[in-house]
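To: structure subgroup
Subject: Chain for Friday's discussion

All,

I'm putting the inputs and outputs inline so they're searchable in the archive.
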Amino acid sequence: MTIEVDLKEIKSLLSEVNSKLDSLLEAKDTYVLMALEENSLKDFLENEPDIYSVKDVKAKVKGN
């Protein structure tokens, strides 16, 4: 009878480990996609004009 209890406990622990591993892999995938998007957009965004100049930002800070 103790073997069955031990097996149930092992299965429960394995299920918990699998769940945590899935979460880690999902987080890693998200990080990789974000890094890829950042690298892909870097060249595009460097060539785009700034919406606000440094002068505009200073004026807004002084005005508040």
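Points worth raising on Friday:
The chain has one domain: 2-63.
The chain has two helices and no strands.

D.
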